[in-house]
Backbone:
């Protein structure tokens, strides 16, 4: 399972100026310091996707099977809420880096928090271990996700022509981790138990942290710069707000307002409120020009379509996992493939096809489809991927051929490459100069919202009657895409010269 909203993020690249020079070419022609960020990011993705590959089945498998015996729809909702919280945490991680610690330090501390989360999942029993582990991994992953690309960007001078190749290499590391994580944890889970799988995720993160702790001193000083330091007289206020927020969450949990069964809905509501507030603040600001305001309005339909896309795409960790457990024939010459290995199919296609897409867009140049058109095509392809489940829907246990799910996930990847790398780029191009970071935050909010909805939608999935689920969601995604395609010209006019 890949994460191209993270992989393709180049936002930090333009904001910082490397102080390493262009002479260092020791890491495949790139600065040697890239190896350290490459390593910690690869192992972080290994641990993240390795853990997520077995997370849902850990929750709904029976206690006799080594799981927690949670109701399947509730478990899927928790997975969605957790995924949404990861993306919500990117905003917190970016703020801490910008105002308090700088990107490099936040990256380092986030890696420690992630490792602690995986250790909690591996060692702490029952629901407490699950809760503590998921909270730590979500907050840590958000902090690392928000700052890793910024640190990579700090390795290059603005005029360094190696920048795009460096980010491509970084991107490769992410996908290598995403591929091997579910393979290792799934093999351990199916042979010696879930907690061994979570332990492998902790070890992987530990290896990345160990390597990075030795190499972080070689990173440029600019990676530790705090761009907009919080005044000393306001720090106590921030600490008070943070403490009050944590206390409020604890009280709401103890009072039963926040429960496992409504967690996804709460994350959805919080994300919607945050997105509306962000749009309102930007659009009503007197600091932006009429052209900039028009571009922000143009981002709204892209935001909506992106939410729709992620609400289907992220079901790889909810409905597709359940489907693979119950419907997929995973028997290969008498050996049964672990469920989580299905999550390693997507990264293979991403590694193969991302270069192909980049070459095609480069070849087409100004003739390539506009951003709204790419979004529309991505949404329609994603809808088609859900419709491809229909020939095998309502089948007997283990009746879907493995090649069928491979083909469906290939279509998932095609949709991803039309939308995900383009989406973050669009947020940086359409964002007003004064609100550049907030527009990137808005993009991540759309991913958070879609991911949370993916968990919430899983409650409507009925393995005994799958046709309505795949048909309705596939049709909605296709209709969303068609609507944006029809509105592409008006949206382009609002974009005021940006394509």
Residues:
């Amino acid at each position: 399972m890949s994460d191209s909203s993270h992989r393709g993020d180049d936002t930090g690249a333009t904001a910082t100026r490397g102080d390493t020079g262009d002479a260092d070419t020791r890491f495949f022609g790139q600065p040697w310091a890239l190896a350290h960020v490459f390593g910690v990011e690869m192992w972080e993705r290994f641990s993240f996707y390795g853990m997520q590959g077995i997370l849902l089945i850990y929750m709904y498998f029976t206690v006799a099977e080594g799981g927690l015996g949670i109701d399947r729809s509730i478990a899927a909702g928790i997975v969605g809420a957790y995924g949404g919280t990861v993306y919500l945490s990117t905003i917190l991680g970016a703020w801490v880096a910008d105002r308090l610690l700088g990107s490099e330090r936040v990256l380092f501390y986030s890696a420690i928090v992630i490792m602690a989360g995986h250790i909690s999942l591996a060692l702490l029993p029952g629901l407490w271990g699950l809760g503590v582990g998921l909270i730590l991994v979500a907050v840590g992953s958000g902090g690392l996700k928000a700052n890793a690309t910024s640190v990579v960007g700090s390795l290059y001078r603005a005029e360094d022509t190696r920048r795009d190749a460096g980010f491509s290499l970084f991107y490769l590391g992410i996908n290598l981790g995403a591929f091997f994580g579910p393979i290792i944890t799934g093999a351990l889970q199916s042979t010696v138990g879930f907690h061994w799988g979570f332990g492998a995720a902790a070890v992987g993160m530990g290896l990345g942290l160990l390597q990075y702790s030795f190499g972080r001193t070689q990173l440029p000083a600019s990676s530790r710069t705090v761009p907009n330091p919080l005044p000393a007289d306001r720090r106590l206020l921030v600490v008070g707000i943070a403490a009050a927020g944590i206390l409020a969450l604890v009280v709401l949990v103890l009072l039963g307002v926040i429960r496992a069964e409504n967690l996804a809905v709460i994350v959805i509501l919080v994300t919607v409120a945050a997105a509306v507030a962000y749009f309102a603040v930007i659009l009503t600001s007197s600091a932006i020009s009429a052209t900039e305001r028009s571009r922000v309005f143009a981002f709204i339909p892209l935001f909506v379509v992106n939410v729709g896309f992620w609400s289907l795409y992220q079901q790889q960790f909810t409905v597709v996992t359940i489907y693979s457990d119950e419907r997929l024939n995973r028997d290969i010459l008498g050996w049964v493939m672990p469920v989580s290995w299905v999550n390693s199919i997507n990264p293979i296609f991403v590694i193969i096809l991302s270069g192909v897409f980049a070459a095609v867009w480069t070849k087409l140049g100004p003739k390539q489809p506009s951003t709204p058109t790419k979004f529309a095509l991505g949404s329609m392809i994603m809808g088609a991927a859900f419709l491809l489940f229909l020939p095998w829907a309502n089948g007997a246990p283990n009746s879907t051929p493995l090649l069928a799910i491979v083909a469906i996930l290939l279509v998932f990847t095609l949709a991803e490459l039309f939308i995900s790398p383009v989406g973050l780029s669009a947020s940086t191009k359409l964002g007003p100069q004064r609100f550049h970071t907030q527009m990137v935050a808005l993009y991540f909010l759309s991913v958070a919202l879609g991911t949370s909805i993916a968990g919430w939608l899983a409650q409507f999935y009925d393995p005994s009657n799958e046709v309505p689920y795949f048909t309705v969601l596939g049709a909605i995604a296709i209709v969303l895409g068609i609507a944006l395609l029809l509105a592409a010209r008006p949206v382009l006019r609002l974009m005021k010269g940006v394509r």
